[in-house]
Amino acid sequence: MTTTNPDDRLRCPKDASLMSKVSVGNVVVDHCARCGAMWFDPYELEVAVRTKGAAQDIDHGAAKHQYQWNVYRASELLCPRDHSPLVTVPDSRQAHVQIELCRQCGGVLLDAGELRDLSEFTLSERLKAFLKR
Ligand SMILES: [Zn+2]
Ligand SMILES: [Zn+2]
How far is it, in rounded angstroms, from Cα 133 to Cα 11? Predict the structure, then answer.
């Protein structure tokens, strides 16, 4: 059961705003102008993290921390694509920083500031390990 927007834009899982399409390298990600959240399909996040300067272009937040992927719980948010419940991966040292994952389609929701942090890590490797569990 998937709701399809006529213009293919997604609704922000946090505030239901229509998200804008933003080019990052050669992919297009969904960006919420209201809260700064970004939605990535799995391959999109990988490309965005690898594209030099991409994070600074679209991510205007400022989160400073490292991610730990060993703790997660069910989120109250729903995947904008398939409406599956997202899984929250909180940072172990800064509990207010969280990444929402969809285990159905592998999409990832980032808050403002999180992409810039993730760019400094080999995120795709960590993500693959996490999703295999
Ligand atoms: Zn939003
Ligand atoms: Zn999904």
Answer: 28
Ligand closest to CA 104: 2
Q: Which residue is it, tokens 């490797």?
A: 125
Domain residue spans in the chain?
Answer: 20-131
98-102 long-range Cβ contacts below 8 angstroms, 24+ apart? 99/67, 100/13, 100/75, 101/72, 101/127, 101/130, 101/131
Tell me the per-residue pLDDT of 32-41, one tens digit each, with 9 for 90 and over.
Answer: 999 999 999 8
In the reported structure, the alpha carbon of residue 41 is separated from the centroid of ligand 2 by a whole-number distance in angstroms of: 8
Beta bridge partners of 24: 27
CA of 133 to the centre of ligand 1 (A): 29
